[in-house]
Structures are given as C-alpha cells and as structure tokens.
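Limitations
The structure tokens in this dataset are predictions for the assembled complex, not deposited experimental models. Users should treat interface geometry with appropriate caution, especially where small molecules or nucleic acid strands are included. An illustrative entry is reproduced here so readers can see what is and is not provided.
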Amino acid sequence: MAITLTQGIMLGVFAILAGLDSWLEVFYIFRPIISCTVAGLILGDLRLGIIAGGLTELAFAGLTPAGGTQPPNPAVCGIMTVVIAHTTSVAPATAIGLSLPFAMLMQYILLMFYSVFSVFMPVMDKAAAEADTKKFARIPYLIMTIVSISFFIVIFLSAYAAQAPMAALVKAMPTWLIHGFELAGGALPAVGFAMLLKVLLRVEYVPYLLLGFVVASFINFSNVLPAAVIGIVFAMIEFFRDKKNKDLQAQIEELKESGVNGGEEDGI
Amino acid sequence: MASDDKKTQGGKLTSHDITMLGVRSSLLQAAFSYERMQAGGWAWAQVPVWKKIFGDDKKGMSEAMTDNMEFINTSPPLVSILMGLLTSLEEKHVNRQTIRGLKNGLFGPMAGIGDAIYWFTLMPIVGGIAASFASKGNILGPLLFFIVYLGIFLCRIPFAHLGYNLGTKAIDVIQDNSEIIARVATIMGLTVIGALISSYVGLSLKLKIGSVSLQKDFLDKIFPNILPLGFTFLLFWLLKKKVSPIVLIGVVFVLCIACSFFGIM
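Predicted assembly:
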C-alpha cells in the first residue's frame, strides 16, 4: 500500500519526537517497540506496527549506546521497518533487514554531528565566562533544532519521496536474497550481545552467563522472566556475601591493629 | 574572605526548584559533542537554580558556569541525583574546588552503575518481556514498555530531591557501595543476557550429509542453541580483537546472504 503525503508528514513529525528523544534519552519512545507501534498507528495498521515492534526490539536488544559506541539508529530502523512492511507487504522480519541501511544512514549523520558540534563548545565557554545565560542557551537550542530537522528529512524522504524506487527494489530481489535478510534478522542480535559482553564479561561472571543460557534453553517459556528471577537470586546471594566479606575485612583490620598494640602482653 | 564559612541555612531554593531541576535534568545531552560529551547540556540544565543561588553575583555565576563546562559523561536516568547533590553544595557556597572534585569523582562510577542498571539489566528485561507480548500482536507489549520508561522518567524528580537532601552524606553511601552495586547488577544482567542469547539469536543449519540433518540429528543432540552461543562468542572474540561493530554487522549480512544463496542455512 502506498503512503500518502499526509502520512509522510506525520511520520516525519513523529521522527522529530522520537529523534530528539534518542538524542536526549529521556522517554525511550525512540526504541523500536514504541516507534514501530506509532508508525503502524499512523499508517492505519496498528497490529503490523506492534508485531514489527516486538521483532525489531529484539533485534536491537543489545545495540545500546552504552559503552561508547553509537548503534544504528533504533528510531529510524523502527519507523522504516513498518513503512517497508506496509508498502511492500514483505514479512516484518525481512523488513528489519531492509530498514537497516536507513538506520545506518542516520547513525552516520549522528556520528558526524557528534564531531561537528564540538566547534560550538567555545561559544558556550565564552557565554559562561560572561555569565550570559541567554547566549549560553542558544547553542543547545541550535543543536536540537539541527537534530530535529535531520530526523524529519531522513524519514520524510525515505518513507514518502523514495517510496516507489524502494518497492521496485524489493520486487526485483530474488528469494535467496530475501531469505538472507531474514537470516540476518536472526543473527544480528548476536552482534549486540557480543558488544554487551565486551563491556561486561569478565571470567568471574561467565558462570552467570552460562546459567542464563542453559535455563532459557531448557525451560520452554515465552519470556526471559524465569532467567531474570534466577539472576536476582544469585545477585542477592552475592550482595549479602560481599557485604559480609566487607564487614569481615573490617574486623580483620581491627584485630590486626589491636594485635600490634597488645601483642606482647597476652602472647601465648 | 570568609565566604567559605558563610552558610545560608534553609537556602534560597524551594522544593519546587528541586523538582524543576529533576525535570530539567532531561536536557543533559542537549548539546552533546565528542569533545566534552554532556557538558553543555549538564550546565544548561542547572542554569535556573544557579540564577537563584547567585542572584546578582555575576562572578559566582560565571565561575559556576565555567566549571561545569568541563568534560562530563554520566548516566542520563541517574544524573538528577548528582545535580541535586551538587546543587545543595552550591547553595551552601561550599568551596568551588570541592564541588568540582566531587563532580569529577562521582560522574564516572554513576555512569557505570547507571549503564549496568538501565541498559544491561532493565532494558533486556523490560524489552524482552514487552517484545514477547508484541510479537504476538498484543498492544500490552508497547504499553508496558512505555509505562515502565515513563516511570523511569518520573524517578528523576525524587532522585533530584534525594541528592539534594542527602547532601554530602550521599557521597559516602554511594562510594562505599559502588563496587557491590555495580557487581550485583552485572551478575543479574549477564544471567538475562545468557537467556536472551538462547531465545533471540536464531541460527539453524539446513545442510544434510546423506540423510543426516546436521542441525536436528547432530547439533541439537549435543546441546540446543549451541550455534547461537558459539556465534555470539565468536563475535565477542572478534570485538576483543578490535574489529569494529559496524564491520561485524556488514560481515553478518554478507555471511547470511551467502549462506542463503548456497542453501546452508
């Protein structure tokens, strides 16, 4: 189904909200599970939006900005997944793979912004030195305006203006390529998890990772809550043990000190 | 000058000011750049409270603004604690060096704790649960996610008050326990990540040797989901070898398309 101009503009306006949110990280409406749902609502296919949201959220599970690397933009990926699934009637899982180029485009734009915006900092320094709060505020406003406009343009162009070429592209694709994208949709979370592990994993934590893996592999349950509860159990055990160790450590220190002072008198 | 000892007890700030500080802490990343990270937004968020504290004292205002334009990178959902805490010190006109030192000492550990709690623990759990509803077309998924994160946003307000009220006391509590807090959160996060690898990484071979299916008759007999786990560890190893994530994403795409073309997966 085609996208109307009104829908294109509405998607663009939502992209501003979700984009600014992904810039500030406040309400998390930039996460695929929300951005897909809202995009589905705008396109009049809420159910598609929700299902695509679930799948895309999983694909992005480990792709977080924590640890210093900027992942492909989840807001753009979410919106474009629904747009592609809606316009070309491919399965949402396939659409995730097809939306990734757009998400990466936004990622590169943001990476460029992160570098370029450094030039504004001296302006803020000068305003700070003069205690000029009005001049000081101008820079954050300017930056947020630039970010908003970029998100609008990227989504409006890819969802509305470049819609026809995209549909043609998908139609021209052979089945093995589409299946390849589907496979990639299943394999990509591994990249995200590997990134998480790079930040978090130390040898002492490997048992917990394996525990979670084994639990989920053998308990047939639709979500990860059982594993989370087991995680809490071990976290609590460790917490109390750490606390106890810390107290013991303090006691040992105390004994050592008193031992030095009174050692000769009561030495046996 | 004896200004270091001068304490305006009760202070110039009302409870409403601290609430607004919590809300304004949302602006932390408004002027993000690689050079100073969150500095611009960090300072901008606090301008209204400084205006009240310093009033006509242009020199004080300028010093506060300049100090806070230094590099900072901390956890967005937790930042209002730090803002509240430092604001209580600014209000009491504590020595500039002390405030600055505390800021620099605390933002790093708080970033670690925040990442461990919010990105590595809460996000996989809430996202995973919400997504498992949503994949079946249930509106409860996105709704649940939105409500939880709305709650996290609202927490910024009590957090700002918490920081402000605890004043210098909070520093000891956080510093004393920061290691344990970070450790425990990591344990929980990793257990969930282990489960997520098993549930959400989907890889299975189509290949057959004679009539023996490599996946069903061989790999699944060894251990279910061994392929996703092995693949994740391979990528983890490559990341450790300093391969960039973008390259890995590209490799995964090429690999999957090639496997599809040759009928391997």
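Some entries come with short summary sentences. For this one: Chain A has a mean pLDDT of 85.
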